[in-house]
Amino acid sequence: MTQTTAPSPLPLSEADTVPSLYRSLLAVLENTLTVPSDRPDETPRATLNCLWALAAGQPLAISQANQAVIGELDPTAQEVVQTLVKRRLNGELLPYLVGRQDFMGIVLTINTAALVPRRETELLGRTALDCLRTSTAVEPWVADLCTGCGNLALALAVQAPHAKVWGSDLSEDAVALAAANAQFINRPDVTFVSGDLAAPFESDAFLGKFDIVTCNPPYISAAKLDGPYKESHRHEPRLAFDGGPYGIKIIQRLIQDAPRLLKPGGWLLFEVGLGQGEPIRQRLARNPVFDVIGTHPDSNGDIRVLAARRKS
Ligand SMILES: C[S@@+](CC[C@H](N)C(=O)[O-])C[C@H]1O[C@@H](n2cnc3c(N)ncnc32)[C@H](O)[C@@H]1O
Q: How far away, in angstroms, is 239 Cα from ligand 1 center?
């Protein structure tokens, strides 16, 4: 008779270790939650992990909640998590419920003063980082216009520590949130100011001094915001989306005003909406202020970031 080695014990299945309330809420979310197409990380499980941690007293972003141990909740916290799941299913945004959001490897606080940073905007962040890494400036200056909660400005400051970074926004509440985020990630050297587009930097101290200007402007037409996008965009500030009658009002002003902030050879980098890339590239190519235009497509091949170099 041949001796067989006893099989090693199976790892305990999740069903044995995870509280039954977690399993039942997960089933509810899996059956009913529509994962937002522009926030694809918010799967049913990630959503529940965040809400579970919040009910247990820990506000965590998805990247953190997915690592957290799912422990038992006391009876009060069990009621809290069930209420949170209901609120999410009633349309409230997960990042606003939890007050945390991931962006380019950093965790930020978020509230309704600012748009929830989208994964797609990381393309603009990566493009700006490439530009910073190839810059010959010892301390390149970066201005992030329309900064919202400060996500791009702070991610660039963290990943390119040699850069000096400012952010600005028309909304004073967004600027307050961005400034709080600078403290939250312990980067008080990143300065946030309020004002209309390039206006906060229209002084001798700044004009012609920036190596890079980044911007994720509002670029949705008012008609879309009042029509097909009304429901999906109702929780975030309209100011963050509204690009005027054709969606390009702020982009047009950006192309006109940002070059004044740039050094000769400096780069303007900005995100555009679906379908806006090629017409705006053509507009940049006709503008004698710029000598090199770059286009950066997303994984579907759609141009979502444009880069324009100020002529030397
Ligand atoms: C699409 S959100 C971008 C937020 C953030 N930078 C991001 O990528 O997630 C656009 C931001 O532009 C701001 N904004 C709108 N009009 C503006 C203007 N005229 N000048 C400066 N900021 C403006 C809004 O308050 C909002 O925070």
A: 7
Q: DSSP labels for 210-266? A: EEEEEE----B-HHHHHTTTTTTTTTS-GGGTB--TTS-HHHHHHHHHGGGGEEEEE
Question: Looking at ligand 1, which residue's alpha carbon is closest to its atom 10?
Answer: 240
Rounded-to-integer distance, Cα 291 and Cα 309, Å: 6
Is there an atom of ligand 1 within 6 Å of 151 CB?
yes
In the chain, which ranges are E strands? 100-103, 106-109, 141-145, 164-169, 191-194, 210-215, 262-271, 290-297, 303-310
State pLDDT tens for residues 163-222. 999 999 999 999 999 999 999 999 999 999 999 999 999 999 999 999 999 999 999 999
Sign of the dihedral through C-alpha 201, 108, 154, 233: negative
Question: For residue 269, how many other CB atoms are within 10 A of its CB?
Answer: 26
What CATH number is given for 119-310 in this structure? 3.40.50.150
Ligand 1 and 107: CB distance under 6 A: no
For 166, the 3-state DSSP assignment is: strand
d(CA 31, CA 136): 53
Reported pTM = 0.94
- For the chain, the structural domain boundaries read 14-98, 119-310
User: Are 220 and 251 spatial neighbours (Cβ–Cβ below 8 Å)?
Assistant: no
